[in-house]
Amino acid sequence: MRSDKRLSSEAIEILREEIADANGNEVFALGFLDATGMVDRIKIAARGHESAVLALPVYYEDADVLIHNHPSGLLSPSDNDLAIASRAAEAGLGSFIVNNEVSRLYVVAEPIPKKEKKILDEDKLVSALEPGGAIANRLSKYESRPSQLDLMRLIIKGFNTDAIVCAEAGTGVGKSFAYLLPAMAYAILNKERVLISTATITLQQQLYEKDIPLVAGILKKPVKAVLIKGRSNYLCFRRLQDALHEGDLDLEQQAEQLEAIVRWSETTSTGSKSELPFVPDETLWSRICSEPDLCLAMHCPERERCFVQALKREAADAQILVVNHHLLFADLSARSDGAGYEQTVVLPPYQRIIVDEAHTMEHSATSFFSETFSRMSLMRLMNRLYRKKRMQSYGLAVRLASFLDTDQFLETIDGAIQTVKASMDQLDMAAQTLLGTEGVFRLTSEKKQLVSAQLLPAMRELRQSISKLCGTLHNALETLHEDLQDDPLIWELKAIIRRIEQIGSIAGSFIEFEEKGESVFYIELMNGRRNDGFARFSITPIVIATSLQEALWSQFKTIICVSATLTIDNRFDYWKRRVGLEFETDRNVLSGIFPSPFPYDRAVLLAAPTDSPLPDEAGYDAFVNTAVSRLIAASGGSALVLFTSYTALKQAYEYAREELQGLGIRCLKQGDQDRSRLLQDFLQDESSVLFATDSFWEGVDAPGNTLRLVILCRLPFRIPSDPVYEARCEALEREGRSAFMELSLPEAVMKLKQGFGRLMRTSSDHGVVAILDGRILKKRYGSLFIRSLPETRQAFGDFDLILEKTETFLQNR
């Protein structure tokens, strides 16, 4: 057709000039439609040669039409043109081809007119949370919270203006309702999907089971929400059948659990592990759960009743997706690696995201982008391939052998596996020698001679033995008849081979660690003391910020980040820097701090003894042990004592236990039982005290008289020997920046805020937060910790005065 039927005269002229400037070669341009459907604006994205040009996907989102020229004058699309047009069409873009004179035009795909965005009615939504509003009337103990209403207004603005929102919402603000109402209303109004990501499965389930149904009940139109966990949370029928048929379970307990899981599988509608009436053995569950790289998809004989496939079908037309951070980063990683942002990858496509508990983003991303292996993880793969028990052989290799003509295959595989196991044992022993009594060892250039002598030879042996094993398996697979290539056994075997090869790849990276300065390489002792445990080998990116900027901040229309702890001294600078948001200068970034409505100024006493020694001074440990015991005795229990090291925890616990139990105070210690059971015992006994460390600084919700005293024994600075922290500090110092001021101090302040937040969980709670670290008052930076906390009553004096004021404050409430 004539080009002037689809292009304005200005657009035609611009294209002609650009093609001429490119010497008649191919040019890739973006076209933008006016109200009549004509392309009236052109933006040049790339220039090529006489037969090809880059069609860069990064530009697709803002355009309406992709346009390129064929210098030959023949406008029929090539196969590559059709493939690009197909991908673009998924995002609603059209594709045009023109000749060099831009006199003729061929429409490969018509553009889909962009629908007009509908704006949320701020006043109408906010009124639902005001006294007498739709939500307020559904909650028996509802209290109007101005900070919650202000937070909702900011979030509504974020949706309406396609902005990034950073919001710190103190405990009790009610952030879930503040973001759920706008999110669900926007999804209904604009027929767009909104993704909500949380740090924990517990919060996922609370949103899905309690909060979302409540909000959905006040909206005039139905909204479909789907809860999605990581695949390993779901049962796989095919792998369950494999485990039953192989019959090689190592423990009688596993056999009993397997029978119970089979019975449960016949009645469960979701297949989610959390619905089991018992906690399954970890090794057993890993044998029967769904795994992404072990999934046979359309080749699976159980696909019709697959729980994961059913969940994917549910998610495909859901308006609200409730996921966790690990799943979000798995999806973002695949999309940024080339899968694109317009189609289903790990999750269905989305353009609006809410990140709850956003203070954990850097940790979650670091964990996801790290690579690890250990003797335990490798042995599990070896045993999945081939193992013997009571003169009987089991595993995928045994089943593969039944397809082969040779009788030597299993003998060869057995020998190759034994070589891998021996290499791994040697590597583990070498690693534990390096670990010594420290429990952690980081590979650095300064330690090159030591590492080269004691570790890398064993690492090379492991890589070579893995290569030989996988080569043998690949050779066997290549001899199979073509009809067998789609057999479920072969698919799973190939996935296991990929996992083993990945360990070989990690081993190769360790060998070349000096050439990979963007990552930190380290070894940790796991599962106990030396000779009782095993070494875990890890590679972690030093900088996460760049990856997040590229995969997250620059890709989505609305991103809402909320948490109770995002600021230091009322500034978001530290958090923005750590997660890469400081690089996003072209986006509209909104921020706000929404204080807790709780009466901290009346209900909380912040206490710190002026006579406490500094942690590096003689007598500090003794002071802490004594102070902890006397403070708990004064409160009558109802206490949470938080430490930064398990050694200090055990010392204080042993010092105080006998005396406190004599006063009728039950002493609970982290490590004596699993976390959930420990918390349950603590919550059910108001006179108990819980001694805990790292993971209990957040996520403990103990309202009422269960918790009236929180003791923070030491300011939560990261242990200097932490390899990732150490590497990140060094990276900052190399840039001439202060690692203490930019990383160590703000990170400790954020964690102290989390620990402090354990005390007040409802507006009627009250109690004392005692900080026993002398640095809070004696060091200049100590005031930053205090300024970053809510305004409270304060008691700063010698310990006897602190003890007296603590007892008086608790008795008068």
From TrEMBL:
Its cofactor is [4Fe-4S] cluster. Keywords: ATP-binding, Helicase, Hydrolase, Nucleotide-binding. It comes from Gracilinema caldarium (strain ATCC 51460 / DSM 7334 / H1) (Treponema caldarium). This is DNA 5'-3' helicase. Its EC number is 5.6.2.3. It comes from the Bacteria. It catalyses: ATP + H2O = ADP + phosphate + H(+). InterPro entries: ATP-dep_Helicase_C (IPR006555), DEAD/DEAH_box_helicase_dom (IPR011545), DinG/Rad3-like (IPR045028), Helic_SF1/SF2_ATP-bd_DinG/Rad3 (IPR014013), Helicase_ATP-bd (IPR014001), P-loop_NTPase (IPR027417), RadC_JAB (IPR025657), UPF0758_CS (IPR020891). One of its GO terms (biological process) is nucleobase-containing compound metabolic process. Residues 134-431, 156-391 form the Helicase ATP-binding domain. It holds the Pfam family Helicase_C_2. Belongs to the helicase family. DinG subfamily. GO terms for molecular function: 5'-3' DNA helicase activity; ATP binding; hydrolase activity, acting on acid anhydrides, in phosphorus-containing anhydrides; nucleic acid binding.
